[in-house]
Amino acid sequence: MSNEQDITQATSPYLLAIRGALAPTTLEAARAVHNETAGAPANVEAARTMGDLSHMVYVPVQSGSEAREFLILDLWNSLEGLNGFFENPQVQHQAGLIFTERDPVVWMPASGFASYHLPAPHGKNERIVAVVRGKVQSHEQARSVHNSIVSGAVNRARRAGALSHDAYVRLAPPDSPESLQFFAVDVWMDAAGMGQFYQDPEFLSGFEQLFTEEASTSVWVHPAGDWVEW
């Protein structure tokens, strides 16, 4: 791999999204299991050494202490390291202690799709993550529609409390056609502003053009308590 490719991969990492149903019956019990498995110091060190740049955990907004769904978002800058880490039977066993069922998907940055990352003003500590997943007609058509939406709305989004937007496509197996599964992650610092922005008719009109079928959308927040993240 060339130096230029190395730099691109390091700065545009793969996203591993794991969404599923929690095995423990309470979030407090799930926190303890998570921190003893994925969050154990030796496991954290192994993951980071193999290329795991970031590990964040979320529950659905307004889920309270009895949340049954759980979302993990990890950013990796080594696909080889990611695959090697999760091929470990012990890692798979530990994942089974956290989830009763799970859908792990590896996503790669959508080439040419607009994104942004804006700083949070002092004191704006609320963090809400909105994700969308759906099928697009083609990368070219989706890129055109997506970039028109993002470029035309970024100022309004920022005024409403947007912090970042990232677009991904599902990583396809070698020698297979490119995947038409699209995934986007938005981070907000204002829940009310986010809600108003997503209900704007102009935004909704563009959003509906992006997908060939109804997309899956969801909103997530950090669970209460001390969860090991990095």
Distance between the termini: 27 Å
Oligomer: single chain
Kindly provide the name of the CATH class of the largest domain. Answer: Alpha Beta
Number of domains: 2
Please provide the ordered H/E string of secondary-structure elements: HEHHEEHHEEEHEEHHE
Number of extended strands: 9
Low-confidence stretches: none
Radius of gyration: 18 Å
Q: Could you characterize the architecture of this molecule?
A:
The structure is a single chain. This protein is an alpha+beta fold and 230 residues long. The chain folds into 2 domains: 3-108, 2-Layer Sandwich (Alpha-Beta Plaits), CATH 3.30.70; 116-221, Alpha-Beta Plaits (2-Layer Sandwich). The protein has 8 helices and 9 strands. An 8-stranded antiparallel barrel has the order 1-3-2-9-6-8-7-4, surrounded by 5 helices. Strand 2 and strand 3 (69-76) form a beta hairpin. The chain is globular and about 45 Å long. The two termini are 27 Å apart. The model has no long low-confidence stretch (mean pLDDT 93).
